Amino acid sequence: MTQKRSEETRTRILEAAVRRFAVSGYDAASVDDICSQAGVSKGAFYHHFPTKQAIFLALMQGWLAVIDLGMEAARKDTIPETLVYMTNLIPGVFAAAEDRLPMFLEFWLQASRDEKVWKAVIAPYRHYQAYFTGLVEEGIAEGSLKETDARAAAQVIVSLAVGMVLQGVLDPHGADWEKTAHESMQILMNGLSNGHQR
Amino acid sequence: MTQKRSEETRTRILEAAVRRFAVSGYDAASVDDICSQAGVSKGAFYHHFPTKQAIFLALMQGWLAVIDLGMEAARKDTIPETLVYMTNLIPGVFAAAEDRLPMFLEFWLQASRDEKVWKAVIAPYRHYQAYFTGLVEEGIAEGSLKETDARAAAQVIVSLAVGMVLQGVLDPHGADWEKTAHESMQILMNGLSNGHQR
Prior knowledge:
The structure is a homodimer. The first copy, chain A, is built from ten helices and no strands. The first copy, chain A, is mostly helical. The longest helix of chain A is centred in the middle third of the chain and has 28 residues, at 115-142. Chain A starts with a helix and ends in a 6-residue tail after the last helix. At the A-B interface, helix 7, helix 8, helix 9 and helix 10 of A face helix 7, helix 8, helix 9 and helix 10 of B.
């Protein structure tokens, strides 16, 4: 029961932090604000999170974990099919990022000035770079993708995704992003795959 | 002579603003800070710029104008050649963006909260979207590109560029960005062009 209550408190603090960061920004939101929004004591807060930065990292990791699960669930018979199918995740990523974009931008801003923050921001990006390099290598090995520089191909996929998520969050009505993501990946696959796409 | 001196003052204010924004951030940098950095009176400042926001817009437009010139100068015989050649601009874009990235991120952050700022940020992005749609249509008309949805293809190019500039500025040593940009565009062109690339 105590374990369960402790997890509930942690979740309540995280939800309160998202709301405070969205309203007043990451910098301006104080630990006091978050505690009063969550209805918890400062003692409880510091029991779960040593710093406000630890909250940000927990939120970012939670978001990335959801994306990872979605990517693993998107596996299809071949790598080109898997990559095209993965674009169906994009609307969910947009929805999850929308509330948090100001917070991410603020953190990014800090990353450009603070080495420690920079490392926390760059880690997931390098993780995806490695993940897609692996997928492309798998596609080459199974014969569905042409012999190609897997790292360069992964870079295209990651850049495309980063660019699209940022634009989609900033300009949600500027395009049909789900359709655009799908068509974009299809164009890429036309350049990368062996023979015809299914 | 007065005209020339006025232009010099304007340039001095802009240069001082870049430095102040880089050091203390866009929000924290005051008009007083910028004036004392530039060695000009507040009267001179307001003669050139009604608000601090006007300075930001002038800096952004200056940066974009340089990119536009570079893009026009990159024209080659065919559209696929032009697009691949344009990636040579990337290192220059990185260099010009480096000092200004924190400022752009901060402005982007404001854009996510303020309708007026949002419009200023979204305008150049839509401009590039339209520009590349035009290039792709031209490529289809000249027969160098396959029949394709020009808007979708332009979207891929813009997303790729946005994603790559952001990553390149944040993680300059994470990849050889000039090579990566070149290879990425080549992969895209393999998917978009008619027949073999030169």
